[in-house]
Amino acid sequence: MERREQLYEGKSKIIYSTDDPDLVIQYFKDDASAFNGVKKGTIVDKGGINNAVSSKMFQYLESLGAKTHFVRQLNDREMLVKRLDIIPVEVVVRNVAAGSICKRLGLEEGLSLPKPILEFFYKNDPLGDPMINECHIDVFNWATADEVVQLKERGLKINQLLFDFYKKRNIRLIDFKLEFGRHKGEVLLGDEISPDGCRLWNWDTNEKMDKDRFRFNLGSVEEKYQEVYHLVCKE
Ligand code: UDP
């Protein structure tokens, strides 16, 4: 499958059309950004790692019945996916307090949550992805009531599946962000599932193995992305 024209360029991926109007190519860049684009940089080989890790995760989720946009990995940097009409709602699921929830609720980072917390954010860069609830989604028609039920059920189910997957690799899944979209009447999981959009900590030492290393200048960014890649794709 060859790529045609560029449809969209985001902070870490480029989307290209193909000969098939139902399929697009996601190209993974090495560019990294944080704090809504304020901090910018490059993580060497991040594109290849995120493509491989996401491909593996999508295949794993599909094998357990979760419907995703994944078709196949094309090469080091490119993934063939079903074209989605993206629902502008980011679904975040948390198992342990970290990041924005700590600031918002005054929680200590690392607090283990007795059950997962699911949150919605409005996917809007100029506004910095503000937190929203189901009333906002309903009033502004970002998703139907049935779709909201699916976002919640599927977000929590995917959390269980990913948590188990990472636990087997001695990694604790702290939190992650999902995006969904519509394709031929179905809601499919889209975007990527990589250390860019998940918090992953070493199960024993709590060492961070995700984009927080880049966000907070913790060093060894490439090494930790490589470690996740090996644990996810090479075992
Ligand atoms: N996240 C993401 N993209 C965003 C916002 C958050 O991938 O635009 C991920 C982030 O990497 C973390 C989870 O969603 O794994 C929860 O992020 P949080 O709300 O704590 O925000 P942050 O601290 O990253 O600003």
What does this structure look like?
This protein starts with 5 loop residues before the first strand and ends with a helix. The longest helix has 23 residues, at 145-167. 30% of the residues lie in helices and 32% in strands. The strands form four sheets. Strands 1-2-3-7-6 form a five-stranded antiparallel beta sheet. It is α+β, with helices and mostly antiparallel strands and 235 residues long. Bound molecules: uridine-5'-diphosphate (UDP).
- Report helical residue fraction: 25-40%
> Could you tell me the strand content as a percent range?
25-35%
**What class do helices, strands and sheet pairing give?**
alpha+beta
End-to-end span in angstroms? 29 Å
SSE diagram, text form:
Layout: E1 6-9, E2 13-17, E3 23-28, E4 31-34, E5 39-42, H1 46-63, E6 70-73, E7 78-82, E8 85-86, E9 89-96, H2 100-105, E10 112-122, E11 131-132, H3 134-139, H4 145-167, E12 171-178, E13 180-183, E14 186-189, E15 198-202, H5 212-215, H6 221-233
Antiparallel strand pairs: 1-2, 2-3, 3-7, 4-5, 6-7, 8-13, 9-10, 9-12, 10-11, 12-15, 13-14
Helix pairs in contact: 1-6
Bound molecules: uridine-5'-diphosphate (UDP).
Residues 92, 99-101, 129, 175-177, 197-199, 211 line the site of uridine-5'-diphosphate.
